[in-house]
């Protein structure tokens, strides 16, 4: 699957206001915008022996990361599957019309990250997205296979 910028799937006002409506979007839309951080942590946990890191993408002058993804060398995993990190950064920068300001390696746990960046923890969704994220990760062959 080609890289698609996360902003393509930006939530509408009703999707932001109603967690069930947000939940009912396609997996790609749900994990692109609104639950990318859950997908990234799930990917890392799915492959515990691969040394997968987590990264936060900042564009322009956004205070909080625009997108969160799993990183393995030059490869990344997000709602577009496994792609080169350079392609993911370019797609998001081009779509938003903003330069990449920073790609930060995340060194906190999910709870701390969510608190710092005003993201929902899994138990704060309409339903816990962890199993949905595991099934999504399992659909894609990682680059080391």
Short description, anyone?
By secondary structure, the chain is of the alpha+beta class. It is 39% helix and 19% strand.
Class of secondary structure makeup: alpha+beta
Estimated radius of gyration: 14 Å
How many domains make up the coordinates? 1
Low-confidence stretches: none
Shape: globular
Instruction: Name the average pLDDT.
Output: 95
Q: Main beta sheet, described?
A: 5 strands, antiparallel
Walk across the major sheet and give the strand order. Answer: 4-3-2-1-5
Number of E-state strands? 5
Oligomer: single chain
Helical run tally: 7
Describe it.
- It contains seven helices and five strands, in the order ααααββββαβαα.
- It has 145 residues and is an alpha+beta fold.
- Helix 4 (36-46) crosses helix 7.
- A hairpin with a 2-residue loop joins strand 2 and strand 3 (75-78).
- The chain has one domain (6-138).
- Helix content is 39%, strand content 19%.
- The longest helix has 12 residues, at 85-96.
- It has helices spanning 13-17, 19-23, 27-32, 36-46, 85-96, 110-117, 130-138, and strands at residues 53-59, 67-72, 75-78, 81-84, 100-105.
- It has a five-stranded antiparallel beta sheet.
- It comes from Kribbella pratensis.
- This is DUF402 domain-containing protein.
């Amino acid at each position: 699957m080609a890289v698609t910028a996360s902003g393509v799937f930006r939530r509408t006002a009703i999707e932001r206001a109603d967690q069930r409506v947000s939940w009912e979007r396609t997996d790609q839309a749900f994990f692109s915008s609104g639950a990318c951080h859950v997908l990234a942590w799930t990917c890392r946990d799915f492959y515990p022996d691969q040394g997968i890191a987590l990264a936060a993408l900042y564009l322009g002058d956004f205070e909080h990361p625009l997108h969160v993804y799993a990183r393995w060398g030059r490869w990344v995993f997000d709602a577009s599957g496994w792609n080169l990190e350079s392609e993911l950064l370019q797609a998001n920068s081009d779509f938003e019309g903003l330069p990449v300001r920073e790609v930060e390696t995340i060194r906190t746990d999910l709870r701390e990250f969510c608190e710092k960046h005003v993201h929902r923890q899994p138990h704060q969704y309409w339903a816990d997205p962890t199993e949905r994220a595991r099934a999504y990760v399992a659909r894609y062959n990682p680059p080391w296979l």
